[in-house]
From TrEMBL:
GO CC term, one of those recorded: membrane
Transmembrane segments: 110-129, 136-155, 161-180
Domain of life from the UniProt record: Bacteria
Record localization: Membrane
Organism encoding this protein: Arthrobacter subterraneus
GO MF terms, alphabetically ordered: serine-type endopeptidase activity
Entry keywords, A to Z: Hydrolase, Membrane, Protease, Transmembrane, Transmembrane helix
Protein name from the UniProt record: Membrane associated serine protease, rhomboid family
Taxonomy of the source species: Bacteria, Bacillati, Actinomycetota, Actinomycetes, Micrococcales
Domain Peptidase S54 rhomboid intervals: 51-182
Pfam family, one: Rhomboid
Length: 197
């Protein structure tokens, strides 16, 4: 069961990463026209569609590489709980990040870093919501590996980094962990029921 889920997780995150690279190649071939067309433009109605499309777009190969590697690792780990939980974690992070940028952002914003921060936050807090020591141990290991990411939620003036995308993506990940926390089992069973699979 776990081996099959791991194969599905790997296939899913690799296909998603490949999609990001295909979109990037098309975008580069068109002179980055898609950035102007589909990036998030804060507080402009015409930029609202960027909430959906902006995470698929990146400024250059370096920007995309910096998001691809953590997406592969964090996405794989999140998917091991099941496709539905993965979809909720990604979807909540994606939407929260995009809406946060649209409301509070400072300029045209693109990139999947909000989803990266969302998955990171989801994986960090879900074990505490679920009272699951294995998930907490994984959170500690992830914090050791990627803990410096958390600085990205703080304002960084004079850079092209969207701390708003990072902050609201992380909040979306925390919300996803709360939405997906295991429900208490009926009295007398001593078990917790999963929320979604």
């Amino acid at each position: 069961m776990l081996a099959r889920r791991a194969r599905s997780a790997l296939a899913t995150v690799v296909v998603f990463a490949a999609l990001l690279w295909v979109v990037h190649l098309v975008n580069a071939a068109t002179g980055f026209f898609l950035v102007r067309l589909l990036g998030i433009v804060p507080r402009e109605l015409e930029g609202l569609d960027g909430v959906v499309f902006a995470p698929l777009l990146h400024a250059d190969a370096r920007h995309l590489i910096s998001n691809t590697l953590p997406l592969l690792v964090l996405g794989f780990l999140a998917f091991l709980e099941g496709a539905k939980r993965f979809a909720v974690a990604v979807g909540t992070s994606w939407l929260a990040s995009g809406l946060g940028v649209w409301i509070f952002g400072g300029g045209v914003t693109i990139g999947a870093s909000g989803v990266v921060f969302g998955l990171f936050a989801y994986l960090l807090v879900r074990g505490f919501y679920n009272r699951d020591w294995k998930q907490i141990l994984l959170a500690v290991l992830l914090f050791g590996m990627y803990g410096s990411l958390l600085w990205g939620v703080l304002p960084q003036f004079g850079t092209n980094i969207s701390w708003q995308a990072h902050l609201f993506g992380a909040l979306g990940g925390v919300l996803a962990a709360l939405l997906l926390k295991r429900r208490p089992a009926p009295s007398g069973t001593g078990r917790r029921l999963p929320r979604a699979r």
